[in-house]
Structures are given as structure tokens and as C-alpha cells.
Amino acid sequence: MRNYFFFLFLLISTIASAQFDIYFENHSLRMDYIHSGNDKTDNYAFKEFIKEEKWGGSHTQMIETFEYGKYFVKVFDKNTGKLIYSRGYGSLFHEWSTTKEAKEFSRSFEETVLMPFPKNEVIIKLYSRNKSMTFDERFVIPFNPQKTFFEYKNDNILPVIDIHISGEPKKKVDIVILPEGYTEDELGKFIKDCHTLTNQFFAFAPYSQNKDKFNMRAVWIPSKESGSDSPRDSVEVSTALNTSFNTLYSDRYCMTLDYHRVRDYAANAPYDQIYILVNTDKYGGGAIYNYYSVSVSGNLKSPKVFIHEFGHAFAGLADEYGYEDSFENMYAKGVEPWEPNITTLVDFDTKWKDMVASNTPIPTPANAKYTDKIGAFEGAGYVKKGVYRPKMDCMMRSFDGDVFCEVCSKAIVDMIKFYSE
Ligand SMILES: [Zn+2]
């Protein structure tokens, strides 16, 4: 019987792989665009199509079923109308649009969607969530590989350093590590930092049990100067990716607005996730779902920071903490948020309700009796009231404990399977 299931599995994956070959070449199509607007409206403007040599994604899991992310891209085969590829993602524009500044003026940000390179004409559609959390179609563009102009970038010549390789990119989670603020003389330090990051990452559950599902590669791009911009310390340096602390006016939030440049560099290796490693001891970092993660090398002394951040970028996990003066507009009342590890209890059935013991009350009181129980504890997603988290403590809430809660762990493992099966 076991053999039967094994062959059935083989057959299904062979058929799925054949589907990939019908529609796609093993290269990437990258669409760069500009996303602009303010707190009320937003606009998309196409910039360019780029063909990239490498595709690091799956050949079997073409449709994303998680439906995580503020935004979504869907690719349809023009002839049949069939959906052949989809992915969710987030962006810095979305975060900025929730700030005070966005009430005063409009601003533009670079965004990108990446997909395997289509063999035939396709229709690419971009979607954005509305207030009720359903997706609205916002931008539509055709792409014909025989007729549409695209730039072919097969001249990626930056050195790629293998840090941890466990198999073919199409069956693994491929992380590309990009150096930021490492000078020509600091290549040795960068490689050492990459190994430190990788070792610490794989020491942490559930990544520790899934080491063989990951590839880690580093691209070498020297910067003119060390470190990163830090406006509050009056530090401005010339670096490869132009990162800066104080992004969106939060001192520890270190991101870059030059997203298309990040994608140019990342394209040197096949990848699913981009990890920017900033050469500084100043505390900070940041991450957005299927966008990129940033860690400072100083975090390597406290690896929980970059493991926490990667939870956002890789598995779409929300922060499980609330602030005293809450961001009231972050999660609308009466609507279930999309993140797998927080709930407003509006549609708890779609979340982790099946993991809660029958004798645990919902909402769950935050007292000693329930310390180790899965429940729904109030205070998460930056608010104290109305948004609930699965456990008293978790890596997505604080660094007091040393583990992801069961709900976050499951979300991470499900995502690892999505990339590697
Ligand atoms: Zn959690």
C-alpha cells in the first residue's frame, strides 16, 4: 500500500511538472512597476519587463492557496483563460500608506512581481485587498514573449557563494543573501557572517528539522563604505543597496527604497526569498511578506531578531504584540485579518480553532492556568483590544521564550512544504 501511494505521489508530481513545461521556461519574468498614492488612493504604473536567467521557484506549486499578503499577482494563459501562476506579497508602499505622512501627500515606491517565464501570451493581473479583506483587481497587462519588448538580463556576473546547498532550486526554499555596507576588504567578514546567520537559523525550530529543504547562497557586491545610513546619528554612507535606518521614521526600521536594484542583484542566484545582511552593530532590521528581509550583522549576536523578521517575510506571520497607544486602523473591526497567527474571532474557524482544546475558553484569560495552552489571547497585531494571538508568548511576540508557538510553527512548516514538495 505504501508503494502504491508513493507511485501515486510520483505520478501527480510528474503531471504537475509537465504542466510547468507546457506554460513556462525555466527562467524568470520580472515585471517592475511603480506603486504610488496616499492613505486613500493608489495607482500602478508599469516600468519594464525583464527576462532573468534563473528561476528559483517551484515547478509544481504554481497556484498559491494560502492567500496571504496585502497584494496578489495572478497570471492567466491568454488562449484558455486558465490561471497558471499566482502569489501573494506585501510592500513598503502599503506600510507607508498607513502613516501620518500619507494623509498629507502622495508618494511613489518601486515594486516587482516575479514569475516563471511564459512560453505563450499571458495576462498578468495585480490585486489589492479592500477594507473587507477581499481582493480587487487593480492592474491588468498582457505579455507576449514573441512580441512584447523585454530586456534580457543574462549578464549577471557577480560572484555567487554557496553557503548551504541541499538540492535543486525547484524543490527547495532558496534564500539569497545580499551584502550591504561590506567594503571590498570585508568579503571575509561577509562570508563569516553568512555562515553565522545560517548556523543560527538552522539551530532554531522548525527550521532545524527542515535543514534539507533549504538552499542559502550569497551574492558578493562590495560597497564603497561600511554600514548603513542612520539619519538620527547623522550618518550617511555610500552603499550597494542604499539601506537606511529610520525608515518610515522608526529608528530601528532599516530598509531600502531601491527595490529594483535589490532585485537586480538577487537575480544572480536562483531565489525564493531575499535576505539583506547589513554590516553594522546598530540594532535593527525589517521584513515584509514575499518582499525582502533585512538583518543587521549586529543581530547575529541575538539571532532571534532575524528569525523573527524572517517569519514575516517567509510565512506571512503578524506581530503578536499590542502597543499602549494602538494603531487603531491597522485591523478593521468586524473583518478577519489575513495573517495565519492573529484573529479578530470574526472567522476563527479559518484560523487555529481546531488546535484549541475543548476546555480552553475563547477568548482565553491571560493567566498562569493557560500559559502553555493554545487559545485566543487578546492583544496582537499592534493593538491591545480586539485582535487575538494563539499563545501567551511566541517568537512573534517577545524574545523572552525561545520558540515559535504551535500556530506559527505550523504556518512555517506549511510554507516550507509549499516550496519543497
Ligand atoms: Zn505565534
Word description of this protein:
- The chain is an alpha+beta fold and 421 residues long.
- The protein folds into three domains: 2-153, Immunoglobulin-like (Sandwich); 160-316, Collagenase (Catalytic Domain); 322-402, no CATH class.
- The chain is built from seven helices and 18 strands.
- The chain has a six-stranded mixed β-sheet with strand order 9-11-10-14-16-15, sandwiched between helices. It has a four-stranded mixed β-sheet with strand order 5-1-2-8. A four-stranded antiparallel β-sheet has the order 4-3-6-7, with no helix packed on it.
- A hairpin with a 5-residue loop joins β6 (122-129) and β7 (135-143).
- It is globular and about 60 Å long.
- The mean pLDDT is 93.
- The structure holds zinc ion.
Give a quick precis of the structure.
With about 425 residues, this protein is of the alpha+beta class. It is about 20% helix and about 30% strand. It contains 7 helices and 18 strands.
Short key terms for the protein model shown above:
alpha+beta; 7 helices; 29% strand; binds zinc ion; Collagenase (Catalytic Domain); 19% helix; 6-stranded mixed β-sheet; 4-stranded mixed β-sheet; Immunoglobulin-like; 3 domains; 421 residues
